[in-house]
Specification:
Layout: E1 8-11, H1 15-36, E2 40-47, E3 53-57, H2 85-95, E4 102-105, E5 110-112, E6 115-118, E7 129-132, H3 133-138, H4 142-152, H5 154-163, H6 188-199, E8 203-204, E9 210-214, E10 220-223, E11 232-233, H7 237-247, H8 250-257, E12 271-276, E13 282-288, E14 292-299, H9 312-315, H10 317-328, E15 355-360, E16 376-381, H11 410-424, E17 446-451, E18 457-458, E19 462-470, E20 477-482, E21 485-490, E22 495-499, E23 507-516, E24 522-531, E25 539-541, E26 556-562, E27 570-575, E28 584-590, E29 598-603, H12 607-618
Parallel strand pairs: 18-24
Antiparallel strand pairs: 1-9, 2-3, 2-14, 4-7, 5-6, 8-11, 9-10, 12-13, 13-14, 15-16, 17-19, 19-22, 20-21, 20-23, 23-24, 25-26, 26-29, 27-28
Helix pairs in contact: 1-10, 2-4, 2-7
Length: about 625
């Protein structure tokens, strides 16, 4: 049928991208062969939304028999090296580990049945002490990865790999702890699609190479239909989002790869991982944005070793970056969803080396619910142990083991940790077990505000206050606050006049009175007040943009209604992303620009344009945090 049927086949390949990928591989491949004895290369680019193959290059030169050019290395099983680590770490997030969780990166022996002890080393041949899983994955540290595979279980990782579409890891008896370092062969096509599944927030799609097939008479024998893909949910979005967040964190990998590397794209975030096998037989770079995934393999089709140092970041990443830039150059910028999760309340898992407890400052004992907040200190008692001291690998979020030594790996993991702790000068100290008893609920002062009244309108900056106090241990001092701003400290008074700051704004605010006894027990009372009149400052938006803004909305005129001009010295304008903790300063304008109580500010550039302009120019933003309540 194929030979004689006159078939017309339209593939999913992006012709321009395919030609560019072949060109980049040919050019870079020639220098790779000259410098690194790497004669071949393969590449796969996928559309994550559809699973369609946008580019597939099977070898550096199809017509070169000296390098077995007609071998399609994109579908040939090869060891993936460290590029398989994200699969193991994704399984770890499923088990309850988090990017902040700590693990010791110290050379460690691992027993193997009927074989010598397994003793993995990092690529840089260094030890890094306690590292977060974010650092360990982003920096591709080998020792933490091997430990993590033991903790989550080889079988669990192979189950996940099967769900992600790998078909080459079926003989499970072959695989031990070296699986995390690429000890099992995978194909570049399936490997790239596994990363695409992470980009799709855990939805698996089969890859598709063909759109239509028609015969000589024009009859359609095959039509690609998105409805026939049968997507399968294999991971929850909150899990894949953690992996994407770590793999796109260039700062986290910079301690190994440097801040300037080929694992980024100049205009958008991208999640990336490299891989290199023992003795430099294979070099990989894998990566994805929300919409596209690209994988690159470099090596020799006859599996000869390349030169020492031929790792994925050096010889595969330049090709990967070059093709990826071509792929997205005319596509809109997309970002990854920031993951949301809580940290387990266990040492090491919560990112704390040791145990963090709340201590009552004067007694040094454990705080209770009655301990005044200002007398509570959080202290870390650094009983330095390996993570097996605190978790049962089969139930990492469960109780701390009563006999951690029962784990067969405990002694082998614990010994280098204790040597490290002694050299680092740590002094083991156990936290207290008793709770303080000097602060009791019945001892807390009670406060009742007599005046002003709830929701009373206040027109003057001088505010008279009166209240009653019941304090079994006596009244030592007090505080008056408006919202979270301290207005006045006092001692034993129950009637006083406070002067409100001239920067306080019109509207409803909370008046709060704290009373402390000699032991620090605190009582409080609060009520809402309405501040209104010429004595109070006002500022409110005149124009609202509830429907959002587009790039075509700029230049943008912002209008604010203010109080009298003579009360305003300057106005700072900030913006922030909803998911970001900090404000970013945009502009400053003086009060003299207010005309008849209205201030107008013109933004010439959209936020996206500002972000691009400042990021490209300086590499970072100047971030200023305004007051909790801007006045």
């Amino acid at each position: 049928m194929v030979d004689e049927g006159g078939l017309k086949i339209i593939t999913t390949l992006d012709y321009d991208l395919q030609k560019k990928a072949e060109e980049i591989i040919k050019t870079q491949g020639e220098s790779n062969q000259k410098d690194w004895d790497a004669s071949s290369a393969a590449l796969v680019a996928l559309d994550n939304k559809t699973g369609q193959i946008l580019s597939m290059v099977g070898s550096r030169d199809f017509f070169d028999d000296t390098i077995d050019g007609q071998v399609n290395a994109a579908i040939a099983p090869r060891q993936p090296g460290s590029s398989f680590k994200p699969i193991v770490y994704t399984e770890a997030w499923l088990k309850g580990y988090r990017p902040e969780s700590l693990i010791f990166d110290l050379e460690t022996d691992f027993p193997v049945i009927n074989q010598p002890l397994y003793h993995p080393k990092n690529y840089d041949l260094k030890e890094h002490g306690p590292v977060s899983l974010r650092q360990a994955l982003a920096g591709s540290l080998n020792i933490p990865a091997v430990k993590l595979l033991y903790l989550v279980g080889t079988e669990s990782v192979l189950d996940l790999a099967q769900n992600l579409g790998y078909t080459t890891l079926t003989d499970r008896s072959r695989f031990g702890l070296s699986l995390v370092l690429g000890g099992g062969e995978v194909t570049l096509l399936e490997h790239t699609n596994a990363f695409a599944t992470l980009a799709r927030d855990g939805i698996f799609l089969p890859t598709t190479p063909v759109l239509t097939v028609t015969d000589a008479k024009g009859n359609h024998l095959l039509n690609f239909s998105q409805d026939e893909l049968f997507p399968k949910k294999v991971l929850e979005p909150e899990i894949t989002q953690i992996t994407s967040d770590v793999l796109s964190d260039n700062n986290a990998r910079s301690f190994i790869f440097g801040a300037q590397n080929y694992l980024t794209l100049p205009d958008r975030p991208v999640a990336t991982k490299t891989g290199t096998t023992n003795n430099y037989h294979d070099a990989w770079t894998m990566g994805y944005t929300p919409s596209y995934s690209v994988g690159v393999w470099i090596g020799n089709n006859k599996n000869q070793a390349m030169k020492k140092g031929a790792d994925g970041s050096k010889i595969a990443a330049p090709i990967w970056q070059g093709v990826f830039k071509e792929l997205v150059k005319d596509k809109p910028v997309e970002g990854f969803t920031k993951p949301s999760y809580t940290l387990p309340n266990k040492p090491m898992l919560n990112g704390v080396l040791g145990e963090k407890v709340k201590i009552e400052r004067t007694t040094g004992l454990l705080a209770t619910s009655s301990t005044p907040p200002e007398l509570i200190d959080e202290k870390v008692f650094t009983q330095v142990h390996d993570i097996l001291q605190y978790i049962n690998k089969d139930d990492p979020l469960g109780p701390i083991p009563t006999n951690p030594q029962a784990d067969p790996y405990y002694e082998l993991w614990e010994k280098p940790v204790q040597i490290w702790a002694e050299k680092a000068g740590y002094i083991n100290a156990a936290p207290p077990t008793d709770y303080e008893a000097i602060h009791q609920t019945q001892d807390q002062p009670k406060v009742t505000i007599i005046s002003p009244q709830e929701n009373q309108t206040i027109a003057s900056l001088a505010l008279p206050i009166s209240f009653t106090v019941q304090a079994p241990r006596g009244q030592a001092r007090g505080r008056v606050l408006v919202d979270n701003f301290l207005i006045k400290d006092f001692t034993t008074e129950t009637s006083l006049t406070v002067n409100l700051p001239p920067t306080i704004t019109q509207g409803t605010h909370q008046l709060i009175i704290y009373i402390y006894d000699p032991l620090g027990n605190r009582g409080q009372a609060s009520l809402p007040l309405s501040f209104s009149g010429d004595n109070f400052f006002s500022l409110s938006w005149t124009n609202q943009y509830a429907e959002g803004l587009a790039s075509t909305s700029f230049p943008l005129d912002l209008s604010l209604t203010t109080g009298s001009r003579d009360k305003i010295k300057k106005i700072d304008l900030y913006w922030k992303l909803a998911s970001a903790p900090d404000y970013i300063w945009l502009a400053t304008t003086s009060g003299t620009r207010i005309n008849q109580g209205v201030l107008k500010i013109t933004l010439l550039f959209s936020i996206a344009e500002l972000a691009s302009r400042y990021t490209n120019s300086f590499g970072y933003f100047l971030v200023l945090t305004p007051p909790a309540e801007p006045h």
